[in-house]
Amino acid sequence: xATSHLSRSGLCIKIYxxxxxxxxxxxxxxxxxxxxxxxxxxxxxxxxxxxxxxxxLFPENLAHLQGQVAALRAEEAGPxxxxxxxxxxxxxxxxxxxxxxxxxxFNPVVRPAQALRQFVGPxxxxxxxxxxxxxxxxxxxxxxxxxxxxxxxxxLVVLGRADTLLDPAEARAYWKNHACIHETDDGHSxxxxxxxxxxxxxxxxx
Length: 206
Hints:
The structure is a single chain. 33% of the residues lie in helices and 21% in strands. By secondary structure, it is an alpha/beta fold. The strands form three sheets. Strands 4-3-5-6-9-10 form a six-stranded parallel sheet, with helices on both faces. Strands 1-2 form a two-stranded antiparallel ribbon. Strand 9, helix 6 (168-175) and strand 10 form a beta-alpha-beta unit. The longest helix is centred in the N-terminal third of the chain and has 18 residues, at 58-75. It is globular. Mean pLDDT is 92; it is low at 4-12.
């Protein structure tokens, strides 16, 4: 059930207060303090954030995220829906296949070892400003992963046509025939969650 709220820009935004089983996975070098999770919480106030360290190895991070989902499922009822942005989109797709739940992927990384290679070396967290080193070992841990496209789940892949960090054509080709692909005029970070995104997420919670 949704209620309506008039935003500062004058747009009417539906708010789904009873939707509680949406879990968000942030991107590389990011956190639940990201703008994308903020947008998600505006529409789904009870959405949850999953956390992983960008400095972690892929298998360990995936197991850590699975544990957080298990804890969430023990406390909340209803179908789980995963949302992930960038590298979080990659993680959400992997979790979705393992847990047999639907997922929405915003500008997702599809070949993480290659996409993350550019970040090997010193990094600064977007939220908090902590400095840390992304190593070749960390990057190489993403070289082997399961093909999540084989899982029989529903997926919404949202691609910003103006994304300059990741090539939307690569994700489009990768997820073609395995997801509903929705394109926007955004860059790598979405400026808003449009009706297709919010109504799809809400419908999956029914």
